[in-house]
From TrEMBL:
Positions that bind substrate: T126, I127, D128, R163, M170, G171, R172, E223, K247, H253, L254, Q255, R256
Source organism superkingdom: Bacteria
Binding, ATP: G11, R72, C73, G102, D103, G104, T105
Residues the record lists as binding Mg(2+): D103
Record: active site: D128
Name of the protein described by the UniProt record: ATP-dependent 6-phosphofructokinase
Keyword Protease attached: no
NCBIfam families per the UniProt record, alphabetical: PFKA_ATP, PRK03202.1
Assembly description: Homotetramer.
Cofactors named for this entry: Mg(2+)
Organism of provenance: Pedobacter montanisoli
Length: 324
C-alpha cells in the first residue's frame, strides 16, 4: 500500500473529524501519500479527491460534522458508477481506502473491495450504534449526550406543568439512542423499533405513575417504532388517557451536531489509527471496532449481518424497573 484515501459517507457523526485526522497522520507517519475524498462515494465518482498532509487536519479534532463532507450517492450502487470511482482512484495510484460510515457505506465498500484491487477498511461512524463488531460507533456517545441535555430541559417544563411529553429521537431501525437516553434521563417509558410495546402496556404504566403521584412523565419514542412518529403515539394515548396535558417534541437533526465528546474524539482517533495500520499491513474487507477496551478487526460481512446485532435486553428490563 502506497497511497491511501479516506472518505466519510452516509449520515455525518461527531468524531468523524478526529478519525480523519488520525487516518491522515498515521498514513503520513508511516510514509504513505494521503488523500481526502470530498462527499463520500459521490466524490470518488466526480474525481473530487485531494492530497492531504499532516497540516490539512490541524485544528479539527474538536469539530462536529466532517471536513470531507458526506453524501448519499445512488450512482455508486450501479456498476457504471463503481467503475468510474475505480478508474479515478487508479489514475492517482490509490490502492487503499478508509471508509467512515454506517451499514450502507459498508455494503458499498464490501461490493467495491470484492470487485476491484483496492483494499478497503471501514470505521463505524454513525450515531445509531447499530453495527455488529464495535461496542460503540463513532458519534453515538455525543448524540446521546445531546439528547440527554435536551430531555433535561424538557423535564423542567414538564414538571412545572404536570405534562406528559413524548420525545422523538433518531433511530429508524435501531433503538440504541432511545434506550440509553431513556436510562440516563430517567424516562418513564421507551418505545423501540426492535420491541413491540402495546398501547395498553404504555397506558397502564402511565396510569401507575399518575396514581403514585408522578408529577410529569417523559416517554422516549424512537422514530422507527411501530406506531409511527411521536405525534401518532401521543394522539393515541391522549384519546385513552386524559390525566395529563400531552406535548410532543421531535429532536431531529440537532442530535447529529455539536462538538464531539471526549469519548468520541478518543474513539475516532483509535479507530482511524487502527484502520490505517491494518490497511498498511495489507488487510482488507474488515472494520475496525471497539471490543471492551481493545480495537479489533471484524469482517465487513459479519459487521453487516443483521442477525449478529442485538439490542441489550438487560438494559430494557432495567429501564422498566427503575421507572416505577
Ligand atoms: P447512516 O447509518 O448514518 O445512515 P449509512 O452509511 O448507512 O450511514 P446510507 O445512506 O445508507 O448511510 O449509505 C451511504 C452510501 O453508501 C449510499 O449513499 C451509497 O452511495 C452507498 N451504498 C449503500 N448501499 C449500497 C449498495 N448496496 N451498493 C453500493 N453502494 C451502496
Amino acid at each position: 500500500i502506497k497511497n491511501i484515501a479516506v472518505l466519510t459517507s452516509g449520515g455525518d457523526a461527531p468524531g468523524m473529524n478526529a478519525c480523519i485526522r488520525a487516518v491522515v497522520r498515521t498514513g503520513v507517519y508511516y510514509g504513505k501519500n494521503m488523500f481526502g475524498v470530498i462527499q463520500g462515494y459521490q466524490g470518488l465518482i466526480n474525481n473530487n479527491i485531494e492530497a492531504m498532509n499532516a497540516r490539512s487536519v490541524s485544528n479539527i479534532i474538536h469539530l462536529g460534522g466532517t471536513i470531507l463532507k458526506t453524501a448519499r450517492c445512488l450512482k455508486f450502487k450501479e456498476d457504471a458508477g463503481m467503475e468510474l470511482a475505480y478508474q479515478n482512484l487508479k489514475a492517482k495510484g490509490i490502492d487503499g481506502l478508509v471508509v467512515i460510515g454506517g451499514d450502507g457505506t459498508f455494503t458499498g465498500a464490501k461490493r467495491f473491495a470484492e470487485k476491484y484491487d483496492i483494499k478497503v477498511i471501514g470505521v463505524p461512524g454513525t450515531i445509531d450504534n447499530d453495527l455488529y463488531g464495535s461496542d460503540f460507533t463513532l458519534g453515538y456517545d455525543t448524540a446521546i449526550n445531546t439528547v440527554i441535555e435536551a430531555i433535561d430541559k424538557i423535564r423542567d417544563t414538564a414538571d412545572s406543568h404536570d405534562r406528559l411529553f413524548f420525545i422523538e429521537v433518531m433511530g429508524r431501525d435501531s433503538g440504541c439512542i432511545a434506550l440509553r437516553s431513556a436510562i440516563a434521563s430517567g424516562a418513564e417509558a421507551v418505545l423501540l423499533p426492535e420491541r413491540e410495546t402495546s398501547l395498553k402496556e404504555l397506558i397502564t404504566k402511565l396510569k401507575e405513575g399518575a396514581s403514585t403521584k408522578k408529577s410529569s412523565s417523559i416517554v422516549i419514542v424512537s422514530e422507527g417504532n411501530k406506531y409511527g412518529g411521536a405525534y401518532d403515539i401521543a394522539h393515541a394515548v391522549k384519546r385513552k388517557f386524559k390525566h395529563y396535558d400531552t406535548k410532543v417534541t421531535i429532536l431531529g437533526h440537532l442530535q447529529r451536531g455539536g462538538s464531539p465528546s471526549g469519548f468520541d474524539r478518543i474513539l475516532g482517533s483509535r479507530l482511524g489509527f487502527a484502520a490505517t495500520k491494518a490497511l498498511i499491513k495489507g488487510e482488507t474487507l474488515k472494520m475496525a471496532g471497539l471490543h471492551g477496551n481493545e480495537i479489533k478487526l471484524t469482517n465487513l460481512a459479519d459487521a453487516l449481518n443483521k442477525n449478529n446485532y442485538k439490542l441489550e435486553d438487560d438494559l430494557l428490563e432495567m429501564t422498566h424497573v427503575l421507572s416505577i
